[in-house]
């Protein structure tokens, strides 16, 4: 085990790490698919190389592909190849990674990012070694050992329809769990010492050293970015700190102190895409729509109240119309088709209905009176009328009242 750690520059003695290395060494000579599970930045890429180098395929080719870095439109071509003229830019045949890695090992990092169509093609390769290049009509054969890794919660991705269950079981013939840095105890200090020494040798500077209190602070931090984050902070300390003995006060200036950064990483463990953002957007739209509907109801209620007030003040005017129903009122020019304003299309009054009823004129009079009672204060006038400031400004502009004051 120690010779393996020295060969692959693996630092640490925690039980979970040793167990992961032990499983990798045991499965290496046996030609099974391996799925490596772990958070981003824990060093999952070490195990596929270790498996390949200790397998019967060690003299053959080894390819490591980050599935999340390949665009969805070209990933099938990258993995399974294509024939000349199959799409724009295909100026020659390509055998793809599965063709190039024949007899060797293919490491598929971030396998949880694969599109569903690509997952179906990958399943066929894993089951019988057959694949069809993009644009081709003939089936080709390949003999490739696949080692996959992901930081996605595969079980959740399956339940959400983002990952094929049959592919998961085919990849997961042997599963290896890489522990997060926060669970590795004193390995954190050993890794800090390694990164500090590398910086000192590379740039010919004095090595930074942790005090005992700083070591405790380093081990208490939750490291959401795992080893990648620890290396970054060590490099920052080596370059920016004027003191070579790192105390808790110095270290705390380089470790994020906000609550969010010290929480456990959940974005990948709980599912890389759980549709939470989409739900938030829909909720926001529904809340805004409900607010607009409530504004409309208040405006209609206010309009009816103004109609009652004006009608009551005109009791001595000519006799009402015989008909009890008004003609529909035309929408006002400045009004939006979305539910931003209230439109009173008809109003039924059994008694005292004045002739030539004009709701727009009454609304104008109501606005003028409200402004007059509030000394021209538009905000107070809007509150009195029970409408929003935006609606009041729009109506002032519509009736030309914004130019009078």
What is the gist of this entry?
The protein has 16 helices and nine strands. It is of the alpha/beta class.
Overall number of strands: 9
Percent of residues in beta strands = 5-15%
Mean pLDDT: 82
- The order of strands across the largest sheet is 2-3-6-1-7
Name the structural class.
alpha/beta
Question: Features of this protein?
Answer:
single chain; 405 residues; 5-stranded parallel beta sheet; 45% helix
Task: Describe the SSE topology.
Elements: H1 2-7, H2 15-27, E1 34-37, H3 46-53, E2 62-66, H4 75-80, H5 96-100, E3 105-109, H6 116-128, E4 130-131, E5 140-141, E6 145-150, H7 154-159, H8 165-171, E7 174-177, H9 187-203, E8 209-210, H10 212-220, H11 226-240, E9 245-246, H12 248-252, H13 276-313, H14 359-373, H15 378-385, H16 389-399
Parallel strand pairs: 1-6, 1-7, 2-3, 3-6, 8-9
Antiparallel strand pairs: 4-5
Helix pairs in contact: 2-3, 6-8, 9-11, 13-14, 14-15, 15-16
Molecular structure report:
By secondary structure, the protein is of the alpha/beta class. Helices cover 45% and strands 8% of the residues. It has a five-stranded parallel β-sheet with strand order 2-3-6-1-7, with helices on one face. The chain has a two-stranded antiparallel ribbon with strand order 4-5. A two-stranded parallel sheet has the order 8-9. The longest helix has 38 residues, at 276-313.
């Amino acid at each position: 085990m120690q010779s393996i750690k020295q060969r692959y520059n693996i630092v640490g003695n925690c039980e979970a790490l040793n167990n992961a290395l032990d499983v990798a060494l045991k499965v290496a000579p046996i030609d099974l698919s391996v799925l490596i599970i772990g958070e981003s930045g824990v060093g999952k890429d070490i195990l596929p190389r270790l498996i390949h180098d200790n397998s019967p395929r060690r003299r053959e080719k080894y390819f490591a592909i980050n599935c999340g870095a390949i665009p969805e439109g070209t990933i099938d071509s990258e993995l399974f190849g294509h024939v000349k003229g199959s799409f724009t830019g295909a100026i020659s045949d390509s055998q793809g990674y599965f063709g190039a890695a024949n007899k060797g090992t293919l490491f598929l990092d971030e396998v949880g990012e694969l599109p569903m169509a690509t997952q179906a093609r990958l399943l066929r390769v894993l089951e019988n070694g057959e694949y069809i290049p993009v644009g081709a009509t003939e089936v080709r054969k390949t003999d490739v050992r696949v080692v996959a890794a992901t930081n996605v919660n595969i079980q959740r991705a399956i339940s959400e329809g983002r990952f094929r269950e049959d592919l998961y079981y085919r990849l997961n013939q042997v599963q290896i769990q890489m522990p997060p840095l926060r669970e590795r105890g004193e390995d954190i200090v050993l890794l800090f010492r390694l990164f500090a020494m590398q910086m000192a040798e590379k740039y010919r500077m004095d090595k930074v050293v942790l005090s005992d209190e700083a070591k405790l602070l380093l081990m208490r931090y939750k490291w959401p970015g795992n080893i990648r984050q620890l290396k970054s902070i060590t490099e920052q300390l080596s370059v920016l700190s004027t003191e070579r003995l790192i105390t808790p006060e110095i270290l705390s200036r380089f470790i994020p102190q906000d609550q969010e950064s010290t929480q456990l990483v959940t974005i990948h463990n709980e599912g890389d895409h759980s549709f939470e953002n989409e739900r938030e957007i829909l909720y926001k739209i529904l809340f805004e729509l409900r607010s607009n509907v409530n504004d409309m109801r208040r405006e209609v209620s206010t309009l009816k109240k103004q109609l009652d007030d004006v009608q009551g003040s005109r009791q001595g005017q000519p006799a009402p119309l015989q008909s009890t129903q008004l003609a529909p009122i035309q929408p006002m020019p400045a009004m939006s088709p979305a539910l931003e304003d209230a439109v009173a299309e008809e109003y039924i009054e059994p008694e005292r209905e004045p002739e030539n009823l004009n709701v727009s004129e009454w609304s104008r009079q109501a606005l003028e009176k409200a402004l007059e009672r509030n000394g021209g204060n538009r905000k107070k006038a809007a509150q009195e009328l029970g409408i929003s400031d935006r609606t009041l400004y729009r109506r002032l502009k519509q009736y030309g009242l914004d130019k009078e004051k």
